[in-house]
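Amino Acid Chain and Its Fold in Token Form
===========================================
What this section holds: a protein sequence and its matching fold, both as plain text.
Structure line: whole-number tokens from a learned vocabulary of local backbone shapes, matched to residues.
Purpose: to set a sequence beside its fold so the mapping can be learned.
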Amino acid sequence: MGTVQIASRSSEPFEDRKHAGEQLSQELRKLRDRRAVVLGIPRGGIVIARAIAAGLNADLDIVLSHKLGAPGNPELAIGAVFEDGTHFVNKMTASYAGADESYIRREKAIQLDRLTQRAERYRQVLPKLTLNGRVVVVTDDGVATGASMQAALWAVRKQKPDSLVLALPVGPEDTVTMLSQTADETVCLKAPPDFQALSQFYLRFGQVDDAQVLKILEQEAVRRAE
């Protein structure tokens, strides 16, 4: 477990995802001009990631992973499958949840099929960056149970970054603490005691669709080529 910084327990909402990302970039300003890579979880997380990357003069990319859900409890992550087809299983959690090898193989096949379809759309626009040896920041528009973020952190850790930073606008403190065990550093702007749903912490929290994600990726591809 790395360091954990929770800036406040405030319930005051952000204006929108861009506003949250800009605030996170201020908290992460020590990473400016260090060739960091900021990874957003599609779809909402890519808006946060773009704002952070702009503030840090960092590269922007997405992290594509799907959690492997437990038998009878799909929200409990027993592991994750990654866009290259590899996977990670938390053996202790899988054993506790009753997930045997047969179940894990079936769950991996289901989740990989879903992930592959998404990866094909996105990677045609923006090729994946190599994360080995880089400072990597992983973000989303917030966490509730943390299962999707846990899968993303496992995916990134497997690629051997020099440092793995978890950056969150908002989330329950117990979830943030749990996720911090996979990161080298965790920064969370708000961990309010009255957390119910992410939407309560944004004045504007409209759905981010694939067209918006693809536009952001296209803009990043142009920037990389300059």
In short: The chain has seven helices and nine strands. The chain has two domains: 3-64+129-225, 66-122. The beta strands are 3-8, 37-40, 59-62, 65-70, 73-82, 87-89, 135-139, 163-170, 185-190. The longest strand covers residues 73-82.
